[in-house]
Specification:
nucleotide-binding; serine/threonine-protein kinase; six-stranded mixed β-sheet; 15 helices; three-stranded antiparallel β-sheet; Phosphorylase Kinase, domain 1; Transferase(Phosphotransferase), domain 1; about 35% helix; Prot_kinase_dom
Length: about 400
């Protein structure tokens, strides 16, 4: 049996070894990277979290935590840090943890398995560093270690997946309009910086306790100015992927994000998932059932599409309006203009699909946006532990 003194000595040796490895990693960083750090790197002995302490007992009740500070990047002054100024208190998925900054801020910390010198080359870091918008989650800081780096992000309390599937949320059509408008506003900021998100889905659209919609998870984002085509081995969730992506299109198109928004808003109207396909082929068949034959030059010469269409029965050809008829939507949710908005967003013809500016000018928004999403969240005294930031292509052993 290992004595208590020996355990204590092992912990001290581990901290010394870890501190040495961090220092070695720091020395290997290029000068251009070091120059961007606004503060000296402290290597002070971290204070351990005692079992049974107040820090250990902090619960998931984030409504009792600071409500302003963790949305203020000025509270976290260092853009890059090796110091132990964050403490982990909950796991929110395979890649993200909830932590507390020493200032009292609540943060989300996303793991990236890259060397510290490569962190600035990640598309996610490039995108979030260049985008500053209320409806896009903020990158507050980077925490660097020897082998695993952390993106320190705003923590948000809910995601849209919770709103869609939990009846406890009493959604009305005006709430959906507000969410759609916020989503498009965030996408405007993303597209203006020449990025495509490429992975929009309900659990990548977060809500703060104040009802602010935030787009997150830029792990598959790409610059639309990139010269090389995207890899088809890493694509978005098939239920929210544009049909051209399912059929092998490698061109980076921003209006593919608009398709994803259309599916998300459609699911909010139905309070259910639109698709349940297990493969790309099955998803294309379900899209044919919903929308009918795909329109556009891309599909005429696409062998995959022609093969699937030839084998398609056509029994449910173009059943979109039947799916969204009033009896399938809650009475307080049905909005004819909103359903038409979803239909316009889900155009299979790439060239006829709306841009983000055209979507914001849609007649659905002409009467104004009045819904307050914050009202919905009062149904919970405590926020849900939603599946935010999870990535299907991550190593499950992380």
């Amino acid at each position: 049996m290992v004595s208590a003194d020996r355990k204590k000595k092992n912990r001290i040796n581990h901290r010394i070894n870890l501190r040495t490895r961090k220092q070695q990693a720091w020395e290997q960083l290029p000068d251009s990277f070091i120059a961007k750090c606004r503060a000296k790197v402290p290597f002070t002995e971290p204070e351990g979290i005692e079992d049974g302490s107040k820090e250990e007992k902090r619960s998931m009740d984030f409504f009792s935590a600071p409500t302003l500070s963790h949305f203020n990047p000025e509270w976290i002054s260092k853009p890059y840090s090796f110091s132990d100024e964050y403490s982990i208190h909950a796991t929110l998925g395979r890649t993200v943890m909830k932590g507390w900054h020493e200032s009292g801020c609540i943060v989300a910390m996303k793991k990236c398995h890259v060397p510290p010198e490569d962190i600035l080359q990640l598309e996610e870091v490039k995108a979030l560093s260049s985008i500053n918008h209320e409806n896009v989650v903020k990158l507050l800081s980077l925490r660097l270690t020897v082998s695993v780096q952390y993106l320190v992000l705003e923590y948000c309390h809910f995601d849209l997946e919770v709103l869609i599937h939990l009846p406890k949320f009493k959604i009305e059509a005006e709430h959906i309009k507000r969410i759609a408008f916020a989503l498009l506003s965030g996408l405007t900021a993303i597209h203006k910086k020449n990025y495509a998100h490429r992975n929009l889905r309900p659990n990548h659209v977060l809500l703060t306790q104040d009802g602010v919609v935030k787009i997150t998870d830029f792990g598959l984002s790409c610059s639309t100015e990139a010269a090389s085509p995207i890899s088809t081995s890493q694509t978005e969730n098939i239920h929210y992927a544009a049909p051209e992506s399912l059929l092998g299109c490698t061109e980076i198109r921003r209006n593919a994000d608009l398709w994803s928004v259309g599916v998300i808003i459609g699911e909010l109207f139905l309070r259910a998932s639109l698709f349940d396909a297990k493969s790309n082929r099955e998803q294309v068949v379900q899209l044919l059932d919903l929308l009918g034959h795909f329109q556009g030059n891309f599909y005429e010469g696409n062998q995959k599409y022609q093969q699937i269409r030839s084998a398609w029965s056509g029994d449910k050809n173009g059943s979109f309006l039947k799916v969204f008829e009033p009896r399938l939507c809650n009475g307080s949710l049905y909005d004819r203009q909103g359903v038409r908005f979803v239909e316009n967003m889900m155009k299979t013809n790439i060239d006829r699909r709306l841009t983000v500016d055209e979507a914001l000018s849609h007649y659905w928004f002409a009467s104004g946006v009045r819904g307050n999403v914050k009202d919905l969240l009062q149904a919970f005294k405590k926020p849900c532990r939603s599946r935010i930031f999870q990535e299907s292509n991550d190593d499950s052993n992380d």
